[in-house]
Amino acid sequence: MRVLGIDERRGELEVLLEVPEDFYFLALLLERNDIVYAWTTRQLRVDAEGRKGDRVRVYLGLQVEKISYSKFLHRIRVTGRIVDAPEDVSGRGSYHTLSLGVGDTVRIVKQKGIGALTREILSKASSAIKRVLLVSVGDDEIAVGYLSPVGIEVRFVSGIDYTKTGEEESIREQVYIPLRKKLEDVLKSGYAEGVDEVVIATTERLTEVVSEAIREAGARAKLVKVSEGGEAGIHELLRREDLRSLFKEVRAVIERELVDEVLQSVSKGSKKVVLGLENVVKVAKWGVVEKLLVADDLLFEEATRDTVLELLNDVLSLSGKVYIIPTESEWGQTLRKLGGAAALLFYELKDLESTTM
Asked: What is the pLDDT of residues 109-134, one digit of tens each?
């Protein structure tokens, strides 16, 4: 996401949506009653005889009431009442939906001003985004996924069309041709989506064949051995401590480490960790939260969104750090089971149990 301009005094900002991950950050930026301006299509005013006008491209503003967002889909829809539109366009005061995609410019007027949370989200959204193509080759299947700041998207899992004989000396003849063709197709689609890095994982048994296929395909990829190929291999990659440096620029890996830190604190009975949204909200107002972890679906649910936004602002305004964890990820699911929110504190609270009851 490229920030084109910020007017702190008026609470306005303008951003350019550059990659699909930007829809995620835009959904985090927008709050109910914010005013959003963008280009869209709208029907011209109905004439005196009741005939409908043509649909034309117009620039209008609407007051946000609903955000429709789904990860990994390449659009975001913002619905609300039109508050600013050309005179010849019908609908001021009526509802309209902006359908925004890559390449669109969006102007936002924040009704509550540009606070610490807005600046934090903009910082994360405008930082360099490293997108990694993950390919895991097993005896029976090949799995393809993408790792980005939004999380892991397993794009597909496909069988490899060859017959195993169990004879080690004939492995290359059995798998090389179909495997090379499959890898070439996968790499072509990955490069077309603008990935920054390619990591191919496979088992000890297939390492030599896969390495040859990579060379023949002319691919620049890091080959890694895993205990099991296919989809399981993709998830194994992210757990490997020896590969941390490879994924250090991908926030998803940092977020996994944070959830692990929470789990370790819980297992040790530490009083520097608080679980559950209600409990975390309570201690956040005391300024003791060093790191706040929140499952992102709490931000997209109407029942909890306002509470979570206030919580994030409280923590940031009191020198804490916030981490919004994608719920689709393995560690996001773990956080959800812990109540959807967790706080790591600056220091132990002696009466923590009674405080959070």
From this structure: 999 999 888 988 888 777 655 678 89
Query: What SS3 class is residue 196?
Result: coil
Q: Burial, 344: exposed, middle or buried (Cβ in 10 Å; 0-12, 13-18, 19+)?
A: buried
How many CB atoms sit inside 10 A of residue 75's CB? 14
Mean pLDDT for 245-252 is: 62
**Residue with the two structure tokens 């002319």:** 218
CA dist., res. 41 & res. 86, Å (int): 12
Residue closest to 135 by CA, chosen among 80, 217, 41: 217
Dihedrals φ, ψ of 110, to 5°? -80, 120
Q: In this structure, what token pair is assigned to residue 251? A: 């926030």
Q: What are phi and psi of 157, to 5 degrees?
A: -125, 125
Among the listed residues 226, 177, 219, the one whose alpha carbon sits nearest the alpha carbon of residue 201: 226
The answer to whether 290 touches 344, Cβ cutoff 8 Å, is yes
What percentage of the chain reaches a pLDDT higher than 90? Answer: 41
Task: Give the CA-trace dihedral at 226, 228, 230, 232, to 10 degrees.
Answer: -90
- Domains in the chain, start-ordered, CATH in brackets? 2-126 (2.30.30.870), 132-243 (3.30.420.60), 251-355 (3.30.1330.30)
| Average confidence (pLDDT) over 247-266 | 80
Counting every residue written for the chain, the total comes to 357
Q: Tell me if residue 288 falls in helix, strand or coil.
A: coil
Backbone angles phi, psi at 170, to 5 degrees: -110, 10
Residue 357 clears pLDDT 50, i.e. is over it = no
> Mean pLDDT, the chain, as a whole number?
85
Burial level of 67, CB count in 10 A (0-12/13-18/19+)? Answer: buried
| 10 vs 108: CA distance, rounded Å | 10
At residue 326, φ and ψ (nearest 5 deg) are -60, 125
Cβ 40 vs Cβ 77: under 8 Å: no
